[in-house]
Amino acid sequence: MAVCRRRSLGFKALVTIPLVWVTLLLFFFVDQQVTRLEKLETGRRGGIVQRLMRGSGVDSLPARLPKTATGSGPADDPPVGEQRGFLLPPQEPSGPGEMGKPVIVVKDKLSKEDKEAMEKGWSSNAFNQYVSDQISVHRTLPDVRDDKCRESRFSRHLPDTAVIICFHNEAWSTLVRTVHSVLDRSPAHLLTELILVDDFSSHALDRSGASLENRKGRGRKTVLSRVAKIVLAKAVLKRRQSTRKLAKKLTEKGHPVSKTTVHHYMTKCLGLKPLKLRRQPKLTEAQKRKRLTFARERKNWTIQDWRRVLFSDESVFELMHPPNRQNERVWAHSSAEVPAIDTVKQPLKVMVWAMMSHQGLSELHFVPRGQTVTAQYYVEEVLKKSAASAMKRKRKTGPPTQVELLPKMSEAIFQQDGAPAHHATSTQQWCRDNLPGFWEKGVWPGNSPDLSPIENVWAIVQSELDIMEPATTEKALIRNLQRAWLSISAETLDILTCGMPDRMRGCVQWRI
């Protein structure tokens, strides 16, 4: 029995020793393979960064991290060449922005240059770029994933992936940090390429990090001399300064330019627009004072207050009305090819009266040809028939010419301008006796059509007439007016009414 036990022990030793050696060899082999894969991953990431740097016009990424505003920061990173093309993670866990911690900047302790850099970053990118430039491109963040997401495991055999990053006027530090976030957190065997797409940035970066906006040798040279630019700047807000006249003036003074160059400089460089002169009624000093008093008394009126007002007015429309020459344009090789528009010296005119609220319109009242709008005609034909009929409507839904003008007619305020027929004693007395409320003589400022939104309604009607088939008879003009009147929507009326507070404030601001 003793001999068998000795043979058994020898056999066990003979089997165990080779197994130990095989295990050690396998462990050493696996460790070598892991090391080789890590080197391949590092080299692959470095290659991607190098291609990105070549494609985006950057020779190398910064080798050192900037210091924080308080003067302390992470240890200097090794040179870029030793990192295979990308920065290593910061050596200090307490570096700026690590684990999502805020970077506190004491603005009073910053130098003048740092303050200017901070203000420039805010104005250019609407965030604190000064602090962003201090945070490492490899900064760490806390894992905010759900526990179930952390426990999920995915196959290593997934399709290759290309990551595309689009940017427009992006700050350089945030762009580079985004690139490294992808590289640091993506499996190397899945990431094949990372593409940066510059979406027409106006502040692109060259290889030195400077702006390309004023880079020498880029773009067409300006033909405007310094003197020409001064002359154009002095022409701002002056009358009779068309691009053609300005170009002619500069050419005569020895600075030849075209009107296209002048237009480009005024619009693109100075940010100006070629606007028409504003038209406004010529007002006397007394009229200005009344306008200002009226506006000041109602400058605090709300939109709901103005929705109680019924605006009324008369307007005249011409048969064969000449088109707006500024907007009526025809593309042709010569003026001889442009079709002519027939005009007459004394065209037939049609006078109409109407009333509007924020949601409804009265029917158009057509004054017969040859009829003078006297106080008697105004009361008997306009107020008693057209105005009273519109005020009695009770319909809740429908087109503006059929619905009720106001939800509560008892709160209505009737407005009319300063025409003689409106201020007549008989007219004023009828309004007191029959209307729930109205502005008596002298309340509405005279010669002030620009304060009433119904003037905008007349302009809309005229625009509709211009695009219709021109009327050749009085009946045809009346039909076109009715069609144009019916095309006005309740939304348009409410928008015009909601603009009344702005009209009052503008009148007070400009004191006219």
Radius of gyration in whole Å, from Cα? 40 Å
Q: Uncertain segments of ≥5 residues (pLDDT<50)?
A: 48-91, 206-219
Q: Determine the N-to-C terminus distance.
A: 129 Å
Separate helix tally: 17
Series of secondary-structure elements, N-terminal to C-terminal: HHHHEHEHHHHHEEEHEHHHHHH
Q: Oligomerization state of this entry?
A: single chain
Number of domains: 3
Strand coverage percent: 5-15%
**Could you describe the largest sheet, including whether it forms a barrel?**
4 strands, mixed
Transmembrane segments: 9-30
Region (Disordered): 59-101
Pfam family, one: HTH_Tnp_Tc3_2
Keywords: Disulfide bond, Membrane, Transferase, Transmembrane, Transmembrane helix
Write up this protein.
The protein is an alpha/beta fold. The chain folds into three domains: about 15-200, no CATH class; about 225-270; about 285-325 and about 340-510, Ribonuclease H-like superfamily/Ribonuclease H (Nucleotidyltransferase, domain 5). The chain is built from 17 helices and six strands. The protein has a four-stranded mixed β-sheet with strand order 5-4-3-6, sandwiched between helices. Strands 1-2 form a two-stranded parallel ribbon. A hairpin with an 8-residue loop joins strand 4 and strand 5. The longest helix is centred in the N-terminal third of the chain and has 54 residues, at about 1-55. Pfam families: DDE_3, Glycos_transf_2, HTH_Tnp_Tc3_2.
Short précis:
This protein has 17 helices and six strands. With 512 residues, it is an alpha/beta fold.
